[in-house]
Amino acid sequence: MCGIVGYVGDRNMESVLLVGLERLSYRGYDSSGIATISGGELSYWRTPGKLHELEKVLQNMSIRGTVGIGHTRWSTHGEPTEVNAHPQVSTNGKVAIVHNGIIENYLSLKNKLSAEGFLFRSQTDSEVIAHLIDRYLQTDLAAAVERAVLDLEGTFAIAVIAENQPDRIIVAKKGSPLIIGVGKKENFISSDIHALAPHTKEIMYLDDHELAIIEANSVIVKKINGAQVTKEVHTITWDEVVADKGGYDHYMLKEIHEQPSVIRNIISKMVSPDNALIFDKLHISNGDLNKTNRLIIQACGTSWHAGLVAKYMLENYARVLTEVDISSEFRYRHMLSEGHAIVAAISQSGETADTLACLREAKSKFFKVLAFVNVKGSSIDRESDGVVYSYAGQEVGVASTKNYIAQLVTLYLFTIHLAVLRWTLSKEDAVKMTNALKRVPDCIEKILSQVEKIRAIAEKYAYSKEFLFIGRGVNYPSALEGALKLKEISYIHATGYAAGELKHGPIALIDKNLPVVCIATKSSTYDKMLSNIEEVRARKGRTIIIATEGDTSVQHLAEDIIYIPEIEEDLSPILVAVPLQLLSYYIALKLDCDVDQPRNLAKSVTVE
Ligand code: M6R
Q1: Do 339 and 409 fall within a single domain?
Q2: For a disulfide at 154, which of 27, 104, 286, 554, Cβ 3.0-4.6 Å?
Q3: Beta-carbon neighbour count of residue 490 at 10 Å?
């Protein structure tokens, strides 16, 4: 996690760094800081808390300098305090670094350096980098950085400035993302393109084990401990729409309301007027897709839930064995490279460390890798054989909403595509399925028109200590997603369960205080679901039922009921997600939680 930025040039240093950090704050917001060199002197400012704390400290200063680096932190080692914030500096205050990643051998390095007299002030793993560079620094900063990183185990993207060479930033990378923005008489560095978008569209991607010397008029890239390399400059062709709250109180609420237009946009991009499906970056041949007898989906969090929903569809329509794994688990299992398997990575950010690591592992075993990703130009986008974009637009709220819906839609379209290709679905049925999808945006709008009712229900249960979410079949993952949404933004403990599993343990939790959100839309397991709700009611659980419009037979089982429009079962998780998002949102709001930036989280999880 963490975001790093840097700038060499004549612009207003403070503003370039702060704008960059603001745009990277989705990567962590525990603390922030900047360091610059002006008149040959290195200065730095750091504050715990969100970026506005740093802005407050800087507001009456005029920060000068022609080189500067900045950092927004998601804490791994050490609490979010000022001393643990970055930049971390050498004992003599002449070298400053910002770091994204984890230094796994920091303790042994720290012991060694402490014994040599280097003074450690923080509990971070990153501080060793500043001291190591200082230790190796004679005259050439790049040489010192190059020597220092050879001692590091773990992952890093670092940017370094030092008083003795005040015209340059040295960056180096292994395992964490780092890009260089190329300008005229100025250059930038950043963890991703969001921070660079206002300044340049010319981008160089630094690869692992590379180091770069960034000056205002030049960028030199070389292999760490190796030769100089020529890097391609990519011109970003897509327009980044800068997200604002659009009149809503929070990004999350805005993003929930954007969902109908997100789906319409996907349809316009991926479905032609005659219902042909368009996958322009799939880049996996029809032959390979046809031969595939195993799909291995790996993802984290909400993206994993999208994968779980897709499994039902892929196995049902495309008749392909589909495994869905949590990336951090999959990564340390022994991946069997048998059969014609394709590994699919699902990720909004395209930077999730575990998902990326699995993808790399899969490639090293010669699997084809297909990504379902939202952020163009992200590591997962660039490193996969083929890509299906989510087209959700920039998602700012840490809780994923519109991107989840977009993932479900694109996975649905991919299923249809694969099934037709494999002759397991007729073209006529494919068109029927595609047409069914076209009704979804209107259905979501109908759900959104019930916002006040859902808000009232949310407020009624907001002070409950815990929640249970249950669903079956294709809506079992919806239960998991509902519980995740609630706990991450409201800090209320919530568990999602397959309703049929209740009686194997969790039913013991049910009493007159426990709200149980039951997903009971019309489906092939509807009757079974009703029986499960009966079991909850029999134990006095407080049932909030999500049901299909017009279904009166669930009413007697519900303390509260939210109706959603009737839709095909495969598409129901898309609709079901919306009231679950709204329930969480309004509960968190009632509890006065920071909805868009919940504690301890970051939008992009770039550490293991
Ligand atoms: O960017 P990714 O989709 O790879 O991120 C995966 C998870 O970190 C993410 O879905 C997380 O669970 C969200 N906060 C859920 O709302």
Answers
A1: yes
A2: 104
A3: 26
Contact, 160 vs 95, CB < 8 A?
Answer: yes
Answer whether 328 contacts ligand 1 (Cβ < 6 A): no
Q: Are residues 214 and 350 in the same domain?
A: no
**Position 478 pLDDT exceeds 90:** yes
Residues 412 and 465 in one domain: no
Is 240 inside any structural domain?
Answer: no
The per-residue DSSP string of 367-399 comes to: -EEEEEESSTTSHHHHHSSEEEE-------SSS
Give residue 300 CA to ligand 1 midpoint distance, Å.
6
Bridge partners of residue 387, in order along the sequence = 371
Helix (H) or strand (E) holding 572: helix 572-590
Whose alpha carbon is nearest atom 8 of ligand 1?
301
Contact between 396 and 598 under an 8 Å Cβ cutoff? The reply is no
DSSP labels, 478-544: HHHHHHHHHHHHH--EEEEEEGGGGGGTGGGG-STT-EEEEEE-SSTTHHHHHHHHHHHHHTT-EEE
Question: Ligand 1 centroid vs 33 CA: distance in angstroms?
Answer: 25
Q: Whose Cα sits closest to atom 12 in ligand 1?
A: 301
Look at residue 386 and tell me whether its pLDDT is greater than 70.
Answer: yes
Residue 303 beta carbon below 6 angstroms from any ligand 1 atom: yes
Counting ligand 1 atoms within 8 A of each CB, the residue from 27, 352, 358 with the most, and so the one to mutate, is 352
For residue 380, which atom of ligand 1 is closest to its CA? 4
**260 within a domain of the structure (yes/no):** yes
Q: Provide CB contacts within 8 A for 517, sequence distance 6+.
A: 467, 468, 469, 470, 479, 482, 544, 546, 580, 583
Q: Are residues 426 and 509 in the same domain?
A: no
**Residue range 33-85, pLDDT digits in tens:** 999 999 999 999 999 999 999 999 999 888 888 899 999 998 888 898 999 99
For residue 357, report the distance from its CA to the centre of ligand 1, in Å: 15
Residue 605 CB less than 6 A away from ligand 1: yes
Does the beta carbon of 353 lie inside 6 Å of ligand 1?
no
> Which of 235, 264, 296 marks a domain boundary?
235
Predicted confidence (pLDDT) per residue in 324-364, tens digit = 999 999 988 887 777 789 999 999 999 999 999 999 999 99
Tell me the three state secondary structure of residue 301: helix
Separation of alpha carbons 400 and 411, rounded Å = 16
Domain count across the chain: 3
Q: How far is CA 578 from the centre of its chain?
A: 19
Cα–Cα distances in Å, from 587 out to 478, 546, 600? 18, 17, 19
- Would you give the DSSP letter of residue 571? G
Question: What's the gap in Å between 345 CA and the centre of ligand 1?
Answer: 12
Pair of tokens at residue 122: 């923080």
Ligand 1 nearest-atom number relative to CA 485: 16
Please give the share of the chain, as a percent, with pLDDT higher than 70: 99
